[in-house]
Amino acid sequence: MKKYASRIYLCLVFAILYIPILTLMLFSFNNAESTANFTGFSLQWYIKLFSDENAFIALRNTLILAVSSSLLSTIIGTAAAEGIYRMRSKFLKNAVNSVTNVPMMNPDIVTGVSFMLFFAAVVGLLNIEDYDSIGFAAMLIAHTTFCLPYVILSVLPRINELGDSLTEAALDLGCTPFRAFFTVKLPNIMPGVISGMVMAFTLSLDDFVISYFVSPSNFQTLPLLIYSMTKKTVKPDMYALSTIIIITVFTMLIISNIKSFKKTDNRGRKKGGKA
């Protein structure tokens, strides 16, 4: 009974999580604008989506911001994870880990308001007349900052698991510390780096609260565009756009997991062969 109850519970959890997403995807192919009745299969909303200039500008802005912030946070986060691992003082390491976790624990609205006040102070101190001139930089800094802890959380366990043996062997064979990191350690922790980058990308892609407080008037992301539509009505072509994004992110996660599984499987085979 416990076995069947756990399976039923798991199915209910997945149903609650994915039925709304599947409903959105279904009605993106609806022949009518109704979200109550599915009148027939049609691709008209996808056709309208590709002719909507505002949606494409918002999508372009979202992708530029997500790619830039995920790459930047991955580089900084990987370096930070290596730095935390190298710390000798346990007290300092625990303190840094605790500080790193604060942005994840903070409500998004608190982080968004904090960034808004910070950038307003920067504009005042630097005597910048137009906030729009630093708007994209402010968005990039904000997105990179709240993505950083997730990258560190993904990379640091990989570094701890790897240890120092391979790096020390490379140093003994004549590698410089810089070369040993990029030729030996980085390839071995790459699954964690990729996972952190994908997580940072998805977090930046769907962020609304922080973007709402930090965004300039000349840079609108897709979540902000959809929110502006909710004041009137959300058009079904947004369902089509959301479906494309969901499929893209889902595909990226599958590819990332397959690569990670292959690398783990290859390591297991090599260890088995050596044994």
Description:
It is a single chain. The chain has 275 residues and is an all-alpha fold. The protein has helices spanning 2-27, 44-49, 53-86, 90-105, 108-125, 135-162, 165-172, 177-205, 209-214, 222-230, 236-274. Helix 1 packs across helix 11 (236-274), helix 3 (53-86) crosses helix 10 and helix 7 packs antiparallel against helix 8 (177-205). It starts with a helix and ends with a helix.
Taking pLDDT < 50 over at least 5 consecutive residues as the criterion, the unreliable ranges are none
Average pLDDT metric:
83
Could you give the distance between the termini?
42 Å
- For the secondary structure, the number of strands is 0
**Total helical elements:** 11
- Determine the strand fraction and express it as a percent band: under 5%
Percentage of helical residues?
A: over 70%
The coarse silhouette is globular
Order of helices and strands: HHHHHHHHHHH
Radius of gyration: 23 Å
The biggest sheet amounts to: none
Structure classification: mainly alpha
